[in-house]
Each structure stands twice: as structure tokens, then as C-alpha cells.
Design a protein that fits this description.
Layout lengths: L1 E6 L5 H17 L4 E5 L7 E6 L5 H11 L1 E6 L25 E5 L15 E4 L5 E4 L20 H18 L1 H6 L6 E2 L14 H4 L3 H6 L7 E2 L1 H10 L6 E3 L13 E7 L5 H8 L8 E6 L2 E3 L2 E3 L4 E2 L4
Parallel strand pairs: 4-5
Antiparallel strand pairs: 1-3, 2-3, 4-6, 6-7, 8-9, 10-11, 11-12, 12-15, 13-14
């Protein structure tokens, strides 16, 4: 068994979602995974993973992602008139395409086939594969889909994988030790990292319009946070709350609650804990209010919830 820990900002929702993503990934790839937060030192909160491995489990996940291939999934019998690799893109970060596919799923998660929100399959040749697609969830629970417009889930995930591969090739030791703190300029993303959240009102202008005019303005964030947060939300969701009185904003004033748990637990317990539910271990809950950036929703930094 191997154990390792990484620094995490509990007030950044995407980092907490990504911690669950690491736990899910380690359990899938290595087995016998347990994970939990250690806030005994409030200035250096860490997330600890333990798994059936000889090496750092965080590094094992990142190594796998750095070599993973991606396939876009479609319903049975689907005929796509325009293959993924031939689609034109309006955003440079969505111009990448799946390395293979599409893959027909016998059981498709969504009730309708949305070309920009199809589920994905990540795999390494000859190895394990995993399907991701919380944004295509047709079960009736919240999809918690934040991205919108002309970006596809496939294009976003491909760009995030490419970013992880580049960071892993350049500084693997640093990335395994501080995966959420090694940043790079990102364009289109799943919008989970609060550090890359912006609105035209915040900046005084629209960053995407400046990019189209040829003015390069980098917004640095973590591709690890973006992709692992998506993995973490595959079997869990934060709790979306109704509007509070006097808190009317563009998205209807909704708040979102998520939880962080102490003590290492199995993924099946970490999932409800992420929603702030009691699972028999100490839990801290946090609230943030999503904001609108054009057609996209973005996460913002949270505040800790004080419960009576």
C-alpha cells in the first residue's frame, strides 16, 4: 500500500471536486482506495490518498492521464454525418478531436443525443477504460453542466488531457506533489477552477472577444482540476439550493453546497460527503454562488457554512 497527500484549497470548489476525482481514479486504476482531507493545520490543508500501489497514487493517475486516449460516445445505431475529426471549431481550444471513435454505448446516459455534450471514454491501449459524462446525465438529477456555447465535452477533455501530458513531460515530480498548483494558460474548459473564473464585468471587457481580435490574454488554471473534477462528479453532485431572500443574481440566486470530509473513506462514502451529507465522519460544508460568463456558468470561491 502507498500513501501520499497534496495541498488543496477548500474554498475552491473545483479542487474539492477534483480530490474526489483522484479518489475515484485511484480506485479504478489501482484498487483499494481511501481518501480524506486533513485540516489539522488550517494554513496547509491536504488531501490524502491511500491505495494498492508501490508508488505515489497521485503520480500514477497523472501518468495514466498523460498517455490516455479519448473516444466520444454515441447512442446505438447513431450515424454522425460529420465525424468528430472533421468538425470545424469556433474556438481554438475546441479544435482538438478524439483520437478514436465514436464509440456506440449500449446504454446511453442521456435521453437525447446532444452533439456538444456527449459522454466520453478515456482509455490506454490494452488497459483499463473509464466513461465520463455527468454533463449528459439523463436520470433526472442535476447534470451540473457549466460549459456552453460551441465547445464540446470532447474538445474540452482532449485539451485538458493534452495540457496534463505537457505538464507531466515537463515536471512530473512537481505535478505529482502539487497537481492543483501547477498552472498553465487555458482557454475553453469545464469551468470548475475558480481561479480561471471571469466575467466581462469583473475584467472590464470580454476576454474571449479580445482573443478573437488577436490580443492574447492568458487565463491560467489547472487542467488537472478541470479533468479530475469532471471525474469526481461522475457519481456525485454538490447540492444546489434554492434562492436565499435578497440574493437575486443572474442565475436566479441559487447557491451550491459541497462538503469536505476528514478521515480516509471509501469512494462510496466520499460521494454523499461531497454533497454535504453526514457519513459518520466530521464534515465541513461550503457554499458558493455560480455566476454567468456569457452563456457559461462559472464557479466562484466559496465561504464556509456555519450550521447551528
Amino acid at each position: 500500500m502507498a500513501e501520499a497527500s497534496i495541498p488543496v484549497d477548500l474554498l475552491n470548489p473545483g479542487q474539492v471536486f477534483a480530490c474526489l476525482g483522484f479518489l475515484e481514479a485511484v480506485d479504478k486504476l489501482l484498487g483499494d482506495a481511501e481518501g480524506g482531507f486533513d485540516w489539522s493545520n488550517e494554513t496547509r490543508v491536504r488531501f490524502t490518498l491511500r491505495a494498492d500501489s508501490r508508488d505515489n497514487p497521485f503520480g500514477e493517475v497523472l501518468r495514466w492521464l498523460a498517455s490516455a486516449e479519448i473516444m466520444e460516445c454515441v447512442p446505438p445505431g447513431h450515424v454522425d454525418p460529420t465525424p468528430v475529426g472533421e468538425r470545424s471549431a469556433t474556438d481554438e481550444d475546441d479544435s482538438t478531436a478524439a483520437s478514436a471513435g465514436p464509440l456506440e454505448l449500449e446504454t446511453y446516459p442521456s435521453r437525447v443525443d446532444e452533439a456538444m455534450a456527449r459522454p466520453l471514454r478515456l482509455h490506454c491501449p490494452g488497459g483499463v477504460g473509464v466513461e465520463l459524462g455527468h454533463w449528459a446525465d439523463g436520470s433526472g438529477r442535476s447534470r451540473f453542466k457549466l460549459y456552453s456555447g460551441n465547445r464540446s465535452a470532447c474538445g474540452i477533455a482532449t485539451a485538458m488531457l493534452r495540457g496534463i501530458a505537457d505538464l507531466w513531460a515537463a515536471e512530473p515530480v512537481e505535478l505529482a506533489a502539487r497537481p492543483f498548483e501547477v498552472l498553465m494558460p487555458l482557454g475553453g474548459s469545464f469551468n470548475f477552477d475558480a481561479r480561471s473564473a471571469w466575467t466581462a464585468m469583473d475584467t472590464g471587457f470580454s476576454i474571449d472577444r479580445q482573443k478573437k481580435k488577436g490580443n492574447i490574454i492568458g487565463v491560467e488554471a489547472s487542467p488537472v482540476v478541470q479533468l479530475l473534477a469532471a471525474w469526481g462528479l461522475e457519481h456525485a453532485r454538490p447540492t444546489e439550493l434554492r434562492s436565499r431572500r435578497g440574493d437575486e443574481v443572474a442565475d436566479g440566486g441559487r447557491w451550491v453546497r459541497y462538503g469536505a470530509w476528514s478521515t480516509r473513506v471509501l469512494p462510496m462514502l466520499a460521494r454523499p460527503a461531497l454533497a454535504g451529507l453526514s457519513v459518520g465522519v466530521p464534515i465541513r460544508s461550503f457554499l458558493f454562488r455560480p455566476r454567468l460568463s456569457g452563456k457559461n456558468k462559472i464557479v466562484t470561491f466559496a465561504q464556509e457554512e456555519v450550521r447551528a
